[in-house]
Structures are given as C-alpha cells and as structure tokens.
Amino acid sequence: MSGSGPHKTTIREATCRVKYDMTGPDAGQIHFVTAMAPVKVVVVGAGVIGLSTAVCLAENLPNCSVTIVSQHLSPNTTSDGAAGILITTEFPDVPVDRQLRWFKDTFDHLLAIAESSEAGKAGVFLSTGCQIFKEVPRDKKPYWSDVVLGFRTLTERELKRFPHHKFGHAFTTLKCECMSYLPWLEKRFRNAGGMIIQEKVTDLRSLASHFDIVINCSGLGCCSFLEDVDVEPIRGQVVHLHAPWVKNFIRDADGKTYIYPGMNSVILGGTRQVGDWRLEVDEVDRQGILARCCSLEPSLRGGHILREWVGLRPGRRSPRVEKEQIQLQDGRKVPVIHNYGHGGNGVTLSWGTALNVLRLVSQCIQHPPISRL
Ligand SMILES: Cc1cc2nc3c(=O)[nH]c(=O)nc-3n(C[C@H](O)[C@H](O)[C@H](O)COP(=O)(O)OP(=O)(O)OC[C@H]3O[C@@H](n4cnc5c(N)ncnc54)[C@H](O)[C@@H]3O)c2cc1C
Ligand SMILES: O=C([O-])CC(=O)C(=O)O
Asked: Which residues are in the FAD dependent oxidoreductase domain (predicted)?
C-alpha cells in the first residue's frame, strides 16, 4: 500500500466506551462514546457492491475510518454497464429467507431514493413490465413476488403478444443505472468521510497488515488473489438502442433475452457465456440479441443503435457473504469479510448484502446494535 504506514491499533484497543446517561432528554439511554483510535476498515473494490458496502459502513459506524482500495473506479467497473433492473433468482446455497432479506433491503433502500428528489441524479426509478416463460414454471409465484410492486400473472390476452411463451408475470420493480448511481454513491461515501485509493491489490495479507478489518468486494477480480475455484466469468453483451417509445420492460425468464427501457436508451440483451473472458463486442451475439428482442417487441426495429457493451459477471453458485480470519506473520488475526460472487444480481442485492456486511463488522468490533440493522 502506498501512502500509508504500518498501523498498530488493534480492534480491541479501538472498541467503543459505554456511557449511561442519567439526566436530560436522553435519560436512560446508553451512549457509545467514540473510541480513542478509529477502527481502520478497508473495502477492496468500487463496483456497486464495494461502494454500497463502503457507504453503509462509513455512514453507520462513526468509530471506523473507511478506505476503498480499488483497481478501477466508475465508469470502468462491470457494475457501470449493468442493465440495473432489480430482478432476482434463487441461489442454491443460501437460505431463502436470507436471499429475501438481501433483495427486500435493496428494494426498499432504492425505492426510497426513487421517491426522493435525488432520483434523477442517482439514476434510480420505477420500471413496469413483464417476465415471460416458454414453459409454465413449477413455482408460479416466486419467493420474491411480495418484494416488487403489483405482482400478478399475465392475462391470456396479454400473453397473446408472445406466441412462443406459455406463462408470464407482470410487476413493477426498480431500475438502478449504475453510470449515475456509482458516482452518486461515491459522493455520499466521501461526504461520510471515506477515502478512495486507486490501486490493484495483489495480496490480501499485505493489505491486512495496514488495517483492522478487510472487506473483499472485488467481484471477479478476487480470482487473482483468492483461491476460490467457484468464481468464474459469465460474459454478457448488451446493445443500447434509441427507441424512446418503448416504456415497459420485457424479460424472457431464461435470462437470454431482455428489453429494459432506461433514462437515455433501451438496453437490449443478452448473453450468458460461462467461462468466457472475451470483452470485445461479438457480431454474432449482436445479431442474436437484436433478432430475439425484435421478435418480442417488433417496434424496436424502428430504433437505432447508440452503443454496445460487454461485461463479465462475477459468476458463482451463490454469492459469498461471510467472515473469515487471516493470521499475519506477526501473529495478528485480521477479520476478512467477503461480499462477492453476485453473478447477474449484483445491483439487485447490493444494499442488502452491504447491510449484511455491516452486521458482520458490527459483531467484529462489538459495536452496539444500530436501529437500522
Ligand atoms: C450485461 C450485464 C447486465 C447486467 N444486468 C444486471 C441487472 O440488470 N441487474 C443486476 O442486479 N445485475 C446485473 N448485472 C450483474 C452486475 O453487473 C454484477 O452483479 C455487479 O456488477 C457485481 O458488482 P461487483 O461490485 O461485485 O463487481 P464489479 O463491478 O466488477 O466491481 C469489482 C471492483 O473490484 C475492483 N477490483 C477487482 N480486483 C481488484 C484488485 N485485485 N485490487 C483492487 N481492486 C480490485 C474492480 O476494479 C472493481 O472496482 C449485469 C451484468 C452484465 C455483464
Ligand atoms: O438477466 C437480466 O435480466 C439482466 C441481468 O441481470 C444480467 O444480464 O445479468
């Protein structure tokens, strides 16, 4: 780490002191007095997962100093190119109630932004449309149906628009455009006293020697410094089309065809090529995307292409949100909290998994319960 010397404060030394208020308007309340030295937390990564996590920590833990160390910043992260729709799937290794909480916490957080005067600046807004199925799904009402707004089954008349599909849901969800949202989060982070260092991490241990707690939000990047054989790229290509008359989203449940109207363009997708590291736009993929999307929404044929983009989703069977401990050469044990592997759902789960990390960090520093947790 350049620009910071060895740091000797341990977490134990920095834990807060408790004061009991006997008088005044807060009588009977326990106050936690800021400790002598702040707990030094470092967040690796400044995509939607790293920035959400860093903001959550910086705004809720006054006795921590939070630093982001990231190789790339917005607009050069995978998150920047995400369609940003809030739709989730079911991960095999995470209890459903935990997944539900991740999604609901994110939805509620972003809904509040969408309803505020910050919506335009943050790039967060409501989006109504449908998800359609070529075969009737076993579970006609997914576990997340009560998180989104106005969830219902498509009528037969609505389904007639999609002759190759047998079933569908209509609902209102949120779209969070990271090209706006990430700079907006970054500003919020700096306002909360956070620091950002642009640097590649090659070894978690040497980073840990300068901090008390390490949070790993490096997405696919953790392949280079972490032995997690489950992480792999899932290539996604999208086309941005000028077609402002298209207002409602359409998503094929197979995840390979979607149409998402946004603030300045309609995003057409997509591809899901597992293990494919190519970042170049593929001509054949483009033709496939346009053909599939136009077959669902023929009016798109009147649009024109604004730009194209390829990103690599941080693929994993399930996201990894958990704590481990690493031991440094001097014997010091440093908690490392992982928050990566969100695949095609990083925006959808960003705030929920960030709050999960906040709870884990709070446990590490024996911070008092916070009403927002
Ligand atoms: C085409 C496409 C469409 C998508 N659409 C949606 C959608 O509609 N909804 C949705 O929820 N999700 C969507 N996704 C998925 C979403 O983009 C990802 O889940 C999300 O971006 C993951 O965020 P992240 O912060 O983990 O990763 P990233 O955005 O990749 O951020 C990782 C960060 O870690 C940093 N980093 C990596 N390695 C190192 C290192 N060694 N040292 C220092 N820093 C490092 C990087 O520089 C970067 O800042 C889409 C993805 C693609 C490709
Ligand atoms: O699948 C979608 O609807 C959009 C998305 O999250 C992705 O392409 O990863």
From this structure: 40-354
**What does pTM read for this prediction?**
0.91
Tell whether domain 128-178+231-315 is in CATH 3.20.20.510.
no
Q: Whose CA is nearest to atom 3 of ligand 2?
A: 255
The length of the chain is: 373
Residue 128 CB coordination number (10 Å): 15
Is the Cβ atom of 352 under 6 angstroms away from ligand 1?
Answer: no
- Angstrom CA distances, 114 to 47, 54, 157, 173, stand at 20, 21, 31, 11
Q: Which two tokens stand for residue 346?
A: 């990083």
Pairing outcome for strands 249-252 and 232-242: unpaired
Q: What is the ipTM of this complex?
A: 0.99
Is residue 270 lining ligand 2, measured as CB closer than 6 Å? yes
pLDDT in tens, 326-364: 999 999 999 999 999 999 999 999 999 999 999 999 999
